[in-house]
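Dear colleague,

Following up on Tuesday's group meeting, I ran the structure prediction for the two-component complex that the binding team flagged. I've pasted the input sequences exactly as they went in, so you can double-check that nothing got truncated or mislabelled along the way. The structure tokens for the whole assembly follow below. Feel free to forward this to whoever is handling the docking comparison.

Inputs:
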Amino acid sequence: DVKVTQSSRYLVKRTGEKVFLECVQDMDHENMFWYRQDPGLGLRLIYFSYDVKMKEKGDIPEGYSVSREKKERFSLILESASTNQTSMYLCASSSTGGGSYEQYFGPGTRLTVT
Amino acid sequence: EDKVVQSPLSLVVHEGDTVTLNCSYEVTNFRSLLWYKQEKKAPTFLFMLTSSGIEKKSGRLSSILDKKELSSILNITATQTGDSAIYLCAGWGANSKLTFGKGITLSVRP
């Protein structure tokens, strides 16, 4: 079974703090993704990565950066957290091979910025 | 810009009813359409549809893709309270990127 884990289920941070959200997958997947999910807006892609040290902007990258130093780990960084970044953050991974486009999701991190 | 639109945004039914959830897409270099179910946690995969007109079925759930109409439907028959969830539709296009719709919130009343 594919397993995608995220470092925290719940996180509370103050405005201006630097925040790290970690995601680890154990299936040797090439692709990893960070989304945020807000009521009425659905899942929106922040950043994704095809390979180690590769990153691509998604639809809403402003205020975020990412790091992928190892294949299994993809980190989302909020350089200076703001209240409008309060959200549910979901990490996902997928394989490139075999024509399988299914993304496997982690349990999510509910981030509150006060 | 790729776009996926789901309708209705929410609906309430009673146990035993049949529901149809709609998804339309505008996705560059479209490859597949995926359906996910999300309860109070991460989305879980339901179906992936690549070919037009071929129904995929899993128990009381079924789904079909219409590439001519750029749309898909998800049917749930004999609904149960455990079917209450958000149903997400996503289009897979260029660069292995999924574009999600906003989701349909289904509430099944006993």
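Chain A touches chain B through 26 residues (CB under 8 Å).

Cheers,
M.
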